[in-house]
Amino acid sequence: DAGVTQSPTHLIKTRGQQVTLRCSPKSGHDTVSWYQQALGQGPQFIFQYYEEEERQRGNFPDRFSGHQFPNYSSELNVNALLLGDSALYLCASSEGQGSYGYTFGSGTRLTVV
Amino acid sequence: GQQVMQIPQYQHVQEGEDFTTYCNSSTTLSNIQWYKQRPGGHPVFLIQLVKSGEVKKQKRLTFQFGEAKKNSSLHITATQTTDVGTYFCARIGNFNKFYFGSGTKLNVKP
Q1: In terms of DSSP bridges, do strands A74-78 and A64-68 run parallel, antiparallel, or are they unpaired?
Q2: CATH classification at residue B49
Q3: Does A55 touch chain B (CB under 8 A)?
Q4: pLDDT category of residue B95 using cuts at 50, 70 and 90
Q5: What gap in Å lies between CA B73 and CA B25, rounded to an integer?
Q6: A-chain residues within 8 Å CB-CB of B101?
């Protein structure tokens, strides 16, 4: 039973570029959430996808967008990258709204230079 | 707001000593979840507490939910080096938005 898989594991981008991160949820999970974790901080909620729609959104600008596919996998897109976007991006999947805990992927370490 | 506050930010203990981290909210929580993140790793779900005054145990770990459902604690008895990591509490807020505390980083000296 595969857990949550994320790709790529590491990425270096230049300021102003665009990036796409990918996530495959744990088998049996239908909800995907994305988090940004800066060094030494707790994960910050970006948004959540369920039934291919963005259901909830945290305090992130429109430069952050996403998508969920019919197989429940998801993408996170960030446009016009800023140096401050450098962080670990975590994908978490759950059954429904996460009332029974989230399963996190290993994350994508994004560095913007 | 809907954030949860965690204290302490850091804790250094000698192996065998006990450790406790606290999670506090200004508003009543419908539930609280606890996660552990090893250095360089990702958060791993430990437990969820739902009921007022609830106490749950996992081996050396004891989780408690306050009577008023505004605070929670995680206590580790006789720490081991494998307990090293950052412990986060998290809540599901309004409209099912998920909020993590800032975490307590535990270092255990052998």
Answers
A1: antiparallel
A2: 2.60.40.10
A3: yes
A4: low
A5: 12
A6: 42
